[in-house]
Specification:
Strand content: under 5%
Shape: elongated
Largest sheet: none
Order of helices and strands: HHH
Number of helices: 3
Number of strands: 0
Distance between the termini: 51 Å
């Protein structure tokens, strides 16, 4: 696949039909979900989770309505 510039990509995206644009967005969302899952499995969120739980145990959190 030949490389294109960002401006060329933008030009293509604005010309997509509504259905094509929805498919593009869905594909991006699926890629994002796969990356989040891979990061979670790799332990990339463990430190954040531990910090959040520590803050909760120390009473640093408030209940949302």
């Amino acid at each position: 696949m030949a490389a294109i510039t960002l401006e060329q990509l933008k030009d293509v995206v604005v010309r997509l039909s509504d259905k094509e644009f929805e498919e593009l967005v869905e594909a991006r969302e699926q890629a994002w979900d796969r990356q989040i899952e891979a990061d979670a499995e790799a332990g990339k969120f463990d430190q954040l989770a531990e910090e959040a739980l520590r803050d909760y145990r120390e009473g640093k959190c408030i209940r949302l309505p």
